[in-house]
Amino acid sequence: MNGLLVFGQSGQLARELAALAPEARLFGRTEADLTNPEGCAAAIAAARPAAVVNAAAYTAVDRAETDADAARLVNADSPAAMARACAALGIPFLHVSTDYVFDGSGEAPRAEDAPTGPLGVYGATKLAGEAAIREAGGQWAVMRTSWVFSRHGANFVKTMLRLGAERDRLTIVADQVGGPTPAADIAAAALTMIGAMRNDASKGGLYHFAGAPDVSWADFARAIFARAGLSPEVVDIPTSAYPTPARRPLNSRLDCSRIAQDFGIARPDWQAGLARVLQELETTA
Ligand SMILES: NC(=O)C1=CN([C@@H]2O[C@H](COP(=O)(O)OP(=O)(O)OC[C@H]3O[C@@H](n4cnc5c(N)ncnc54)[C@H](OP(=O)(O)O)[C@@H]3O)[C@@H](O)[C@H]2O)C=CC1
Ligand SMILES: Cc1cn([C@H]2C[C@H](O)[C@@H](COP(=O)(O)OP(=O)(O)O[C@H]3O[C@@H](C)C(=O)[C@@H](O)[C@H]3O)O2)c(=O)[nH]c1=O
Ligand SMILES: [Mg+2]
């Protein structure tokens, strides 16, 4: 897509956007530091893009607990400044949010208008970003996704490949359930949405998009090991047996029917995405 500006360069989603839209401009930290909201707005004003996707975020969930000021600047204040700069130029803005805006109670998949209740700083700052973007008043879309994995960056698949090769036995939480989502599918969905928004100024809003089917982290680990030909024993544990600085939601299931209805985008099959990512890791190793 001509004129697309992406915030983020080295991250999982940014790398997949670059692969699918090689003509896009990507801004890393040197071009735009998200701890500086006004700098992000100025970067948009100077670049005069046709559309903006924000693929940068403070994603270190545990570290955010003790680094809340930086997390808020990156996850809320800078996306808000980006949304205002896009509104001023009259161009579409797409931002990405998370299942961690929810409290994880119950077992039903959550729709976009379900009550939020973040359990930690990461989720709270992402939720604040959503609200500020809505208030900026331009043509915006926020896509909430979950459990992102790809060949790039830090993610659960790559952690499991490392630990599974080192250890005979792993204890993995089995009471957190959600949809693992290949970053490549998020990139494709984001480009579809931005294209539709450019064609129709009435398009936009809040959308859920996650891989299917929903699964526990323990069962996701088992699937990774089965496909990768590793055979550590995976022991189910409750979240209470895996203490971390940030609390995480137990129920991360996202109801993704709205994005299917409005944009024709179906939930991606994470097993297929996992097979692709393992193949990519093998050929680049
Ligand atoms: N990862 C996941 O499991 C999930 C992610 N999401 C959301 O999806 C989106 C994409 O996430 P993902 O690609 O996985 O994230 P990554 O952690 O892979 O990448 C984050 C990117 O943000 C950049 N970044 C962080 N801080 C700054 C800063 N101060 N200035 C400029 N750039 C900065 C990083 O740059 P650098 O490499 O230099 O640090 C990196 O390129 C985010 O909005 C995230 O909240 C939603 C659900 C799940
Ligand atoms: C490494 C390991 C993790 N776990 C657990 C911890 C955690 O509950 C779960 C997943 O670990 P992670 O470190 O990938 O979790 P985390 O970094 O919290 O993942 C989240 O990142 C943010 C950015 C999001 O937006 C979320 O959608 C989600 O993907 O697995 C084990 O139970 N055993 C282990 O050996
Ligand atoms: Mg993590």
TrEMBL record:
Reported cofactor(s): Mg(2+)
Keyword Zinc-finger part of the UniProt annotation: no
Alphabetically ordered keywords of this record: NADP, Oxidoreductase
MF terms (GO), sorted A to Z: dTDP-4-dehydrorhamnose reductase activity
Pathway where this protein functions: Carbohydrate biosynthesis; dTDP-L-rhamnose biosynthesis
Note on how the cofactor is bound: Binds 1 Mg(2+) ion per monomer.
Organism superkingdom: Bacteria
Pfam family, one: RmlD_sub_bind
Family that this chain belongs to: Belongs to the dTDP-4-dehydrorhamnose reductase family.
Function: Catalyzes the reduction of dTDP-6-deoxy-L-lyxo-4-hexulose to yield dTDP-L-rhamnose.
Protein name according to UniProt: dTDP-4-dehydrorhamnose reductase
Gene source species: Paracoccus tibetensis
Phylogenetic placement of the source organism: Bacteria, Pseudomonadati, Pseudomonadota, Alphaproteobacteria, Rhodobacterales
